[in-house]
């Protein structure tokens, strides 16, 4: 599907490569995974690790030493990262994946979280993602569970029904992926991009 409000695979891949290149420059952790030679088989991903109170109180979130201070969720640091061995604190691994939908010709945001040190162990639910992970009242209500089209494992994802409209609004952007992600990610999962990415859209 081509036309206003869409992005082709070639555009998505070019946008993703420039996005990841800048991420490497500013040590932001995004990477390009998968097979770039097959449409729809490559995606942008980033994994983060924090600590959460066993009572699910977001005031007790911590950031590990290898995470930046302006992390995805902007939680206030309460303790020293090296003191995360407290029995009341448990690890939370989160991942954001940005894929290209062949059916809709738009980017799609996938998300997963695990209350453990390892991906795949003790996954969080949709309700938990909307409460203690995001720590905000979501404006985007289309968060549901589906199989990751590349990995074949359960992920939470945002239905792409609103993406055509957003891409139409940002049609003059030099990097539609960044413009789309900065809008959808913030509204849906409180995922905030570093301001340096703005220069890719100009």
Automatic annotation (TrEMBL):
<comment type="similarity">
    <text>Belongs to the ATG10 family.</text>
</comment>
<keyword id="KW-0808">Transferase</keyword>
<keyword id="KW-0072">Autophagy</keyword>
<dbReference type="Pfam" id="PF03987">
    <property type="entry name" value="Autophagy_act_C"/>
</dbReference>
<dbReference type="InterPro" id="IPR007135">
    <property type="entry name" value="Atg3/Atg10"/>
</dbReference>
<protein>
    <recommendedName>
        <fullName>Ubiquitin-like-conjugating enzyme ATG10</fullName>
    </recommendedName>
</protein>
<keyword id="KW-0833">Ubl conjugation pathway</keyword>
